[in-house]
């Protein structure tokens, strides 16, 4: 999410489990003060400040209960109590992955640490990728890419102009002399570098490639199983379909190459979640199902995909609202901008130049109010969430924006 004039907020969702306080129940926020740099902290779904704003930057907690934060120009990690458990010492730090490893940068070199802060792979590479199921990660050294194992040993020597993660079928896309091919985990080239463009293999065992300006799909042996015939094509998604374009129109094919939804749309997006895909016809957007049936007629100026709470953002007459999968407008178009709902049912919106969060009923969970060039996070009732225990002074002094509630009561 982009930093706005008033507020920098996370794309992470809010949780509605009020009892537990773990990383997944917290949401980071950053407030701006013209006298200070932005400071970031964490709040729960009830807009209670759990970790006071004190960090220059902050990111979401991962499953291991840690989040990377920036303080005094360096990055480290905190737990859900706000305690710094891995000191702020890195130039850049990334989130922990499924292997409980995090990429870090020091002095323009990259390595990995574990969740205890122990350096597992010292920063010595010019760039580094993620470890995959076969235990290998791509790394760049002296301008060439190779692969290391989880001990940092170079098992495939740097020799490629570019290298990607290994797919589940054991092949990784590599580039040599501006052509793409695929290698196995021993570094042997299985599919020669011959393509002008190539994607990683998807779960159905096919990879999208382009040669001589035409798109096709190959299997893990390099055999073309869906011949070149498309102006444009995309990867197969979880429902077994891939969007393609012929003669300027978009449709969908299955993994056999059969056109299951004929090219007829001016624009189209992939199927996500509830098996509906956004399509554009005659300048308006609607939704089709996986059979190609138009289930929500084209009527919107812009739309997004449906999220886990069954709602999608739509734009009509210059304002954003939200519909359900039946096309019913459940939150009327009223926002200048609106983002998708997070997994836990909260969306970030802008209305009348102000920012805040709404739930699936369209009610605000928290708002941002700017007074005297200082941002205040408030509940819909107007009660200050942060700064806490303060009321806005009637007259804003240059260096004294707030007065203490207790002091003002005397």
TrEMBL record:
Q: Pfam families from the xrefs?
A: WG_beta_rep
Give the superkingdom in one word: Bacteria
Signal peptide (from-to):
1-20
- Keyword set, alphabetical order: Signal
Q: Is Secreted a UniProt keyword of this protein?
A: no
What is the protein named?
WG repeat-containing protein
Q: Which lineage?
A: Bacteria, Pseudomonadati, Pseudomonadota, Gammaproteobacteria, Pasteurellales
């Amino acid at each position: 999410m982009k930093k706005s004039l008033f507020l920098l907020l996370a794309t992470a969702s809010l949780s509605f489990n009020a009892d537990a306080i773990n990383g997944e129940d917290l949401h980071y926020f950053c407030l701006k003060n013209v006298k200070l740099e932005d400071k970031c902290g964490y709040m729960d779904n009830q807009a209670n400040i759990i970790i006071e704003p004190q960090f220059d930057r902050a990111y979401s907690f991962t499953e291991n209960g840690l989040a990377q934060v920036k303080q005094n120009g360096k990055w480290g990690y905190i737990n859900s109590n706000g305690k710094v458990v891995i000191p702020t010492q890195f130039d850049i730090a990334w989130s922990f992955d499924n292997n409980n490893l995090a990429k870090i940068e020091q002095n323009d070199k990259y390595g990995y640490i574990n969740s205890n802060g122990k350096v597992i792979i010292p920063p010595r590479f010019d760039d580094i990728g993620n470890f995959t199921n076969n235990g290998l990660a791509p790394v760049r050294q002296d301008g060439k890419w190779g692969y290391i194992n989880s001990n940092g040993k170079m098992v495939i020597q740097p020799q490629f102009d570019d290298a990607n993660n290994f797919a589940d079928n054991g092949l990784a896309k590599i580039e040599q002399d501006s052509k793409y091919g695929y290698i196995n985990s021993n570094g042997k080239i299985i599919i020669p570098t011959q393509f002008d463009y190539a994607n990683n293999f998807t779960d159905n065992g096919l990879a999208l490639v382009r040669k001589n300006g035409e798109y096709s799909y190959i299997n893990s042996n390099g055999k073309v199983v869906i011949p070149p015939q498309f102006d444009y094509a995309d990867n197969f998604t979880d429902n077994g379909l891939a969007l393609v374009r012929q003669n300027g129109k978009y449709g969908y094919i299955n993994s056999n190459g059969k056109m299951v939804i004929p090219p007829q749309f001016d624009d189209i997006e992939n199927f996500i979640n509830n098996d509906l895909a956004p399509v554009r016809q005659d300048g308006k957007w609607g939704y089709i199902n996986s059979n190609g049936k138009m289930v929500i007629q084209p009527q919107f100026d812009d739309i997004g995909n449906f999220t886990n709470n069954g709602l999608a953002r739509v734009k009509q007459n210059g304002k954003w609202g939200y519909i359900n999968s039946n096309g019913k407008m459940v939150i009327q178009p009223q926002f200048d901008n609106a983002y998708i709902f997070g997994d836990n049912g909260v969306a970030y919106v802008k209305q009348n130049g102000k920012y805040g969060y709404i739930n699936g009923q369209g009610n605000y969970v928290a708002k941002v109010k700017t007074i005297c060039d200082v941002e205040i996070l408030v509940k819909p009732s107007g009660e200050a969430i942060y700064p806490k225990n303060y009321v806005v002074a009637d007259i804003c002094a240059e260096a004294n924006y707030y007065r203490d509630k207790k002091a003002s009561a005397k």
